[in-house]
Design a protein that fits this description.
With 287 residues, the protein is of the alpha/beta class. The chain has one domain. It is 31% helix and 22% strand. The strands form 3 sheets. A 5-stranded mixed sheet has the order 2-1-3-5-4. A 5-stranded antiparallel sheet has the order 6-7-10-11-12, with helices on one face. Strands 8-9 form a two-stranded antiparallel sheet. α1 packs across α2. The longest helix has 23 residues. The chain is globular.
């Protein structure tokens, strides 16, 4: 964090995304951060394509592009043991990974500690007022992207998204995909906590599912990280289903992905250590 600016670094851990491919993605997301996002949320962030993770300054939040993630719970937003944010993005041949980078970058800048709540009426009327977890890119889902300089970036909620008094038809996201408060688009979801402390989620999987109770893992992490730990596998499953009919790339690309996936990387080892630490911490809390 440099003053009031959240500093981010975009790094690649896959041979499928050379450093040169990071540069236009970081440049497009920087335009997003400097323009419509800053205007909407009054928060500023900077993102830099970074080549060597060993030289990354302490105050930068890294966003890693990965070939594989050893456990679905380790995709998306996380924080280190000293509460510094980072994110893991799963590479895909359709180039949609830039949407996920934009998604995580915007949400880290809005809420680097992953704990901001917004009070509003619950989608379940009998619950009354509840606390929504402010995750500005989750309700639109991955399908609500737009383009900056030929790079796909994530649509995001405006502040009025959490205003229950809005007239339907009001624009509630930057790219106008959301037109009502608390609307959820395919691939998106919304999370809240009721007055008893119980957490709830509602998903759109092409159609709206009823709200369901969830139990975030007690890992001593931020609210957002706890929610992501149980939600990310669902999102990855939805993404895999929704992209089945997309081109799978050339044989050469498939071979490159296979070779890259079989390599033992330092980052994969680090992710395993993070997961073991989470699980050990959870075990200590329950014994």
């Amino acid at each position: 964090m440099n003053g009031n600016t959240q500093s981010l670094a975009l790094l690649t851990k896959t041979d499928n995304v050379p450093f040169s491919k990071l540069l236009p993605v970081a440049a497009a997301i920087q335009k997003q951060l400097d323009g419509e996002f800053l205007q909407a949320w009054s928060r500023h962030g900077s993102i830099t394509a970074w080549e060597n993770p060993d030289t990354l300054p302490q105050d930068y939040a890294p966003i890693f592009i990965c070939d594989t993630i050893p456990d679905p719970r380790l995709a998306g937003f996380h924080s280190t043991n000293d509460q510094k944010p980072y994110a893991n993005i799963l590479y895909n041949v359709t180039e949609d990974w830039s949407i996920d980078v934009s998604h995580e970058a915007l949400e880290i800048v809005v809420d680097p500690q992953g704990k901001t709540l917004q009070s509003a009426p619950s989608p379940i009327p009998e619950q009354g007022q509840v606390d929504f977890l402010v995750e500005i890119c989750d309700p639109p889902g991955r399908g609500a992207f737009y383009w900056i300089d030929n790079v796909k970036v994530a649509d995001f909620c405006l502040k009025n998204y959490f205003d229950a008094t809005l007239t339907p038809g009001t624009v509630c996201s930057h790219h106008e995909a959301l037109t009502a408060a608390f609307q959820i688009l395919p691939g998106g979801y919304l999370t809240w906590r009721d007055t008893t402390g119980q957490w709830w989620e509602q998903h759109n999987v092409g159609y709206m599912l009823p709200p369901e109770q969830i139990t975030p893992p007690n890992i001593g992490a931020s609210l957002r990280e706890q929610i992501d730990m149980i939600t990310r596998p669902k999102l990855l499953a939805f993404s895999a289903t929704s992209t089945k009919r997309r081109p799978r790339g050339t044989v050469k690309e498939a071979q490159a992905r296979k070779i890259a996936a079989n390599k033992i990387r330092r980052h994969t080892d680090w992710l395993h250590r993070q997961l073991k630490a989470f699980d050990a911490q959870q075990l200590r809390k329950t014994t």
